[in-house]
Amino acid sequence: MGMKCSFSLLFLILFFSRADALFGHALLHCQFTSPDDFLYLEQIFFNKVLQIQYNSTLGKYTGYTEKTKEIAEGLNKNPKFIKEEKKNELKCKNNIALIFDVFLKPDLHLEPSVRVRSVQAAGSRHPGMLVCSVHYFFPKPIRVTWLRNGKEVTSDVTSTEKLSNGDWHYQIHSYLEFTPVPGEKITCMVEHAHLMKPKLCEWDPRTDRESENNKIAVGTAGLLLGLVFFVAGLIYYKKKTYVHTTSWDVLSLRLQWRQSSYSDGLCCSLLGGRPRKHHQNTGAVTLPSRDKTHTCLIRDWYKHTQTEDVCTQPALPTRGKHCTQKHNCV
User: Fold this and answer.
1) Which residue has the higher pLDDT, 225 or 270?
2) What is the pTM of this model?
3) Are 215 and 222 in contact (CB under 8 A)?
4) What is the Cα–Cα distance from 181 to 127, expressed in whole angstroms?
5) What are the chain's domains?
6) CA dist list (Å): 301 to 236, 238, 240, 251
């Protein structure tokens, strides 16, 4: 069944009296579903009550009150009035083709986009559920029905409201709860003003399986990619943390008295440690004291810690004195 379209002309008639006013209007109505299927109506109302009308299907006037029934009978007997109405019918029919060509010519941008797919049936008494999604249609009126083996389904069907996309287009979703039967043909049928004939979209279980497989493949690929990035980030983090936080152990320090022709002094030497890459980031400082006890500080710039070694200067130093961590010279 196609969509019904119509155009109307409205005439207002006002009658005033001292007590109150009477309001009347006449309506010329041309309703059609195709260029060859149309209905022409002329209706006259007083105070919102239909008094008399002409119907092109009946080909005569019909009155709805005692007075207008007499008037309608007189009009039906007058060939001039009937002939005039036939002319109006012809005008209605001739304008339908123009309306179809200008306003209702199919447009790919306005034709509904239809898709049928299976969804999870949550809380349903049936094991399966299909959804027919209709997008990008205008104007708003539309009819969506389900067919099982060519017969319309009237039960276990729910539908959303016609939802606006905000760009003059609409969308609607119709759901069908069903129990799968081998070899059964399930179709979603859409009827709209921009469709010259109903649009049929058949459900194909193979498409659903392919779509599900694609989702699994995409999900797996995304998971693997995420795992690769995680491992790479973990390696980078560990490497960076190792460089910045690993403290090296001092194996031994050497605090040695040296004499030269220029001056005498103490030399604090790092004999060993691990890891070796930290050697260039350490500093050795010799701190003298009044009792001729000197402290050698080894500072680790990464962890802001220090290791110290204490050595007492001999009275007559003749050779280097060796120190171990936290011990005096031997």
Assistant:
1) 225
2) 0.37
3) no
4) 11
5) 5-102 (3.10.320.10), 113-207 (2.60.40.10), 249-312 (no CATH)
6) 21, 19, 15, 18
